[in-house]
Design goal:
Layout lengths: L2 H17 L6 E5 L5 H8 L5 E5 L5 H9 L3 E3 L2 H5 L4 E4 L6 H10 L5 E4 L5 H13 L3 E8 L10 E5 L3 H7 L6 E4 L6 H13 L1 H15 L3 H11 L3 H12 L3 H17 L5 H11 L12 H8 L5 H4 L1
Parallel strand pairs: 1-2, 1-4, 2-3, 4-5, 5-6, 7-8
Antiparallel strand pairs: 6-7
Helix pairs in contact: 1-2, 5-6, 8-12, 9-11, 9-13, 11-14, 12-13
Length: 307
């Protein structure tokens, strides 16, 4: 997140606090990454205090948290003392470990898992939290970091969902409670991202395929005739997503798990996971050149590369 965006988060957070009434609630955000920091800033409009834990966090995370006026704690157990709500926003691969760490501290409040995990993974995380004596709310975030109104929805489901919608009332985060089976919010997130990010992976793969066979320019020329938006869309797919691909790999595997559990083919998103895995080297490199991104997808083991 650029510095100007960090300052924007802070300004909007102050504005939200001035416009919304406080409620008796202390919140812990685990962790204030690019998305999590905007969730924390939004919660600060209503909560008495929004905390984060600095242990093993990067300088960039610390800078984000300070810019959003989150309160720093250096110990998870201390941060959890008299905390009413924990909101976990982290990469999918870390979601279970974070839940275990919180449960190990004896936390008894309301835990919101806002991660891109399958309903089955969410149920396992729920068991960890509720067996430890806390309550659990399923969550799913759709949209970019909440830097302006109308872009970011935080869907929540389960007992306690209404408490979370109240926490974000009047903020930049549009928090909506949904009803349905256990894990409904997780299922909605998986269904949405299956297309939004899965189609991005497919488009990048198609560009790499055409390049491998030496027909990329012809493909783009045909797109200009029959699908005139696809040339630009494929370039944006590369430049806008390569630096985030390291996170998308795990999300695609969670989506594949959701498909398999529903009795549907999982192969689409396992392949998408492999596409994003090949782009992990672009982490923290926003606006990567599309040419470099497509090249990174091509395997040196391919018979075409050898020839």
């Amino acid at each position: 997140m650029a510095r100007r965006d960090l300052l924007y988060v802070r300004r909007r957070g102050v504005e939200t606090r001035a416009n919304a009434g406080k409620i008796d609630m202390n919140v812990v955000i685990l962790h204030p990454g690019n998305m999590g920091v905007t969730i924390g800033a939004a919660a600060a409009g209503r909560a008495q205090e929004v905390r984060w834990v600095s242990t093993n966090r990067s300088f960039e995370t610390q800078e984000r948290a300070e810019s959003a006026s989150l309160v720093t704690y250096d110990c998870l157990a201390v941060a959890l003392e008299n905390a009413h709500v924990v909101v976990c926003v982290c990469p999918p691969y870390a979601a279970t470990d974070v839940a275990r760490a919180v449960a190990a501290c004896g936390y008894r409040g309301l835990y919101v898992d806002g991660n891109a995990v399958s309903p089955e993974s969410a149920r396992k995380i729920s068991a960890i939290i509720t067996n430890g004596g806390a309550r659990f709310v399923h969550g799913g975030i759709i949209g970019p970091p909440a830097l302006r109104r109308g872009t970011t929805r935080f869907y929540v489901s389960g007992d306690g969902a209404s408490e979370i919608t109240s926490l974000f009332e009047g903020s930049l985060v549009d928090c909506r409670a949904i009803h349905g089976k256990a894990g409904a919010a997780s299922a909605l997130k998986m269904s949405y991202a299956a297309w939004a990010k899965g189609s991005t992976a497919l488009l990048l793969g198609v560009r790499a395929l055409s390049r491998a066979y030496g027909v990329e320019s012809e493909l783009c020329a045909e797109w200009d005739l029959s699908r005139p938006y696809l040339r630009e869309r494929s370039a944006r797919a590369a430049s806008d997503n390569a630096y985030k691909a390291w996170r998308f790999e795990g999300e695609m595997r969670e989506i594949a798990d959701a498909f398999a559990t529903a009795g549907l083919p999982e192969g689409f998103h396992l392949a998408a996971a492999d596409i994003f895995a090949r782009l992990a080297g672009f982490k923290d490199q926003p606006e990567a050149e599309p040419e470099a991104v497509i090249a990174a997808l091509q395997s040196s083991d391919s018979p075409l590369a050898a020839g």
